[in-house]
Amino acid sequence: MFIGGYAGADRLTHGITAAGFGASASVQTDVPNPFGFAVSGNVLYVASNVADGRVHALRIGAEGVLTPIGDQSARGAGTVQLSLHPLGAWLFAVNHDSGSVVVFPVAPDGSLGEVANLVQHTGSGPDPVAQQSPHPHFVVADPSGERVLVTDKGTDCLYVYDFDGETGALSEHARVRLGSGVGPRSLVVHPNGRHLYVNTELASTIVVCGYDIATGQPKILDTVSTLPAGVELWNAPSGLAIRPDGRFLYAANRGHDSIAVFAVSEDGGSLRPVHSQPVGAAATLPWDVVVAADGSRLYVPNLVAGTVATFGIDQDSGLLELVEPTLAVPTPACVALV
Fold first, then answer.
1. Residue 260: inside a domain
2. Which family does it belong to (predicted)?
């Protein structure tokens, strides 16, 4: 497990923590504010959430030792999330603060070339603080690899781009407005590829969309709250994850400091609230959720509490049970499992 930290734009964190290779240890790197990860084989890619956004490539060695193999400018500010194209030859990144989506070529040795394509979002939303400008927050290729999905917290939209696997070019294919002042943040694709789930940072909901892989067109099917009925407080959902078998979806709530557990219908088209699992004491701020590849564990970096909590997942009910002890890590914001 690799863990990145974030202490804010004005107080940078440095270093990535490795755990699970024996005793936990801080891997000293020069990556400031490591906010998002992507993994391909023995290479860890890291989004640096700073004013001059960058993406770093690090070789994973014995016992979790990381060796830099290069970095590239993201040509924007506040790089927050990364994902790899299914064929591994391209890396996508979003610049939250400057409102752009970028594409990097990946060399055979795992290093990155300079940005091959940049798409600048425009527009705003009704929230005068969080939506003054576009803020793309999540990017991922669809199951076909022919299109790329992007959520934008600032414009309330889900974008679908056609992707040219030869040049890395993105061209807008479709755009769906998910609400007004809702702030789309994270996105999960159901294993069947026919449904998408998008959480909203400003409205504390999950928007369920049908997705036609052939046409690349999303369609809103339903919207469900990430909070229990009757709860009214400041809340800003962060991470979103689905179990590999597609039966349960997990959403992190910052403010309510919980993990919302949803049962997913057999066809993937609807969600049923199952439980709201507390992550610890008040003001822990769970920043992400990551499900293990075998679906047996869920990991939660709690930014303010300075812990990474591990929960066992009941295979039948989807319910969570805290596994002690939690791992102490300064301001954890993201987790990568390798």
1. yes
2. Belongs to the cycloisomerase 2 family.
